[in-house]
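4.2 Preliminary Data

To establish feasibility before requesting continued support, the project team ran the inverse folding procedure on a target of 342 residues. The structure was first converted into the token representation described in Section 3, and no sequence information of any kind was made available to the design step. The complete token record follows.
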């Protein structure tokens, strides 16, 4: 018998002895690697097949193959592999372990819905920079340094500067994207910015230091208040899936002129007066108006050529209204009993 065949015989015997002793999945896995692996005993002995006299080589190869096939069959039978019957190792009737599925946060659900609605009306939806400059957050929105209007936004200022003389802030509102976007693009513009904003607030059921806003703005020739109202009404109807009635009241925001507060008739009491609308029949919804000519000027647009409207709303509030949530702090509070309801 050639040494090749003797070696094969040896491997086969060793394998059989070890196979008898093996009992766990790990044992079978180790055996497979040791004997059948890329650097296993069988592969090693096969390297020597060239030294077998040519006349015996065919038979030697055949024998090696038989050894390999029988080892593979034995192992796969025990380890429940594709070709094995998995005796004692794979019980089809045993109940599986349930996988816990994740699910979207209520913010994500509402953000996706709002995004779809605005996209269907031809708006591009952006998120924009959370760290921005004093210029984009205030100055370019007609709120100069030292102006009392700044008091309306309790701002987190950042000590570091990206560039010399450029003060950085955490954006207090998504209006900070208005001029930043306008500088890059010529009208017609239809943009919606949805994202996180930050204010140095004392937190309570309706205030958080981090919250979310939706800002929308449109710039083109001949844009009017009528366009603003019809867009917002359509948006509200799509969001609440109901016929909506809206009204404008005068409101002051330095970056719009004229500026308004838009209310909608309370869905809860149909305008009769209830707790939700503080017995007024109307729910205050958002601030809006026609973009101030100074803002268009900061954007570098030719004087008098374009008009536009802008609106800004609390995204958290919409989510709270949609799901009847009464405390804003629940969103990021990490209480799974709350989160798993969505
Ligand atoms: N940025 C304002 C805020 O945070 C909201 C707002 C009011 C945005 C009027 C607008 C607007 O675009 O026209 O309070």
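Position-by-position output of the design step:
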């Amino acid at each position: 018998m050639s040494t090749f065949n003797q070696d094969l015989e040896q491997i086969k015997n060793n394998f059989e002895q070890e196979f008898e002793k093996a009992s766990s999945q790990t044992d079978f896995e180790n055996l497979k690697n040791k004997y059948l692996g890329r650097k296993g005993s069988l592969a090693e002995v096969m390297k020597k097949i060239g030294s077998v006299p040519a006349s015996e080589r065919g038979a030697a190869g055949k024998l090696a193959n038989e050894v390999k096939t029988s080892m593979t069959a034995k192992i796969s039978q025990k380890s429940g592999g594709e070709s094995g019957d998995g005796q004692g190792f794979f019980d089809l009737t045993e109940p599986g372990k349930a996988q816990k599925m994740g699910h979207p946060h209520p913010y994500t659900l509402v953000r996706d819905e709002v995004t779809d609605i605005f996209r269907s009306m031809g708006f591009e939806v952006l998120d924009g920079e959370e760290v921005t400059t004093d210029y984009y957050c205030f100055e370019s929105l007609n709120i100069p340094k030292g102006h009392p209007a700044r008091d309306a936004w309790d701002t987190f200022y950042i000590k570091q500067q990206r560039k010399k003389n450029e003060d950085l802030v955490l954006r207090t509102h998504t209006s900070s994207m208005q001029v930043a976007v306008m500088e890059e693009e010529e009208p017609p513009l239809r943009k919606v910015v949805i994202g996180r904003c930050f204010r140095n607030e004392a937190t309570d059921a309706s205030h958080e230091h981090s919250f979310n806003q939706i800002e929308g703005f449109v710039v083109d020739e001949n844009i009017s208040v009528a366009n603003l109202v019809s867009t917002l009404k359509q948006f509200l109807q799509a969001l609440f899936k109901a016929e909506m009635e809206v009204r404008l009241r005068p409101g002051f925001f330095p970056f719009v002129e004229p500026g308004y507060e838009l209310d909608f008739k309370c869905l809860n009491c149909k305008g009769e007066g209830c707790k939700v609308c503080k017995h007024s029949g109307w729910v205050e919804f958002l601030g809006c108006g026609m973009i101030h000519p100074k803002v268009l000027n900061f954007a570098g647009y030719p004087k008098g050529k374009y008009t536009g409207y802008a609106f800004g709303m609390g995204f958290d509030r919409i989510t709270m209204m949609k799901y009847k949530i009464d405390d804003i702090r629940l969103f990021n509070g990490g209480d799974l009993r709350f989160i798993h309801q969505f």
